[in-house]
Amino acid sequence: MVARHVLRRGPQTAAALADALGVSPAAVRRHLDALVADGLLVEREPRPAARRGRGRPARTYALTDEGRAAFPHGYDDLAVTALRYLNETGGADAVASFADHRAKGLEQAITIKGKTLAERADSLAGSLTAQGYAASTAPSGVGVQVCQHHCPVAHVAAEFPELCEAETRAFERVLGTYVQRLATIAHGDGVCTTHVPVPPKHVPVPTTSSRSGRTA
Asked: 119: number of CA atoms within 13 Å, CB side?
């Protein structure tokens, strides 16, 4: 309720929020403190134009980017519409080219460390988590699975699987080995799962991505 009011009215003081919501200043401050602690609101000095009269001006509370992202938005619908238009005007090759471009951007944000594939897979999962994918790894037979528990583009990828395919190729480049996508959230699975086969110990593991030139 507090965050939604700030979304609709812009930065607000605690007193203004308490008056608008019909609660005590103490109660609204408890909500504000919790929202600030969660990173949804930020406390800041009021704009110079609002500083009138004597005394210290009351601080205001504004939404952070994370706070805005917590509310419904139309980004997914916009992306789907844009890709549909791209498909209609440029064909499947244009969509695939866009998917590759996006995957290369993700690839550049990934930092891989470690000598073994298992260590490198752990590093990949850590980088993916930093990009909003909530990733982890789990041993699986003669390999390791990279599990993405969240997909920021799942709604779009459900219609355009080229996004998932390009992402899988990016994983191969940063790990320097073949990987197999077993499941995706976009296709109704609970987790995006990528299997990374681990070679026998006597087989050396490449430590340089074939395209990115990064080293472990």
From this structure: 8
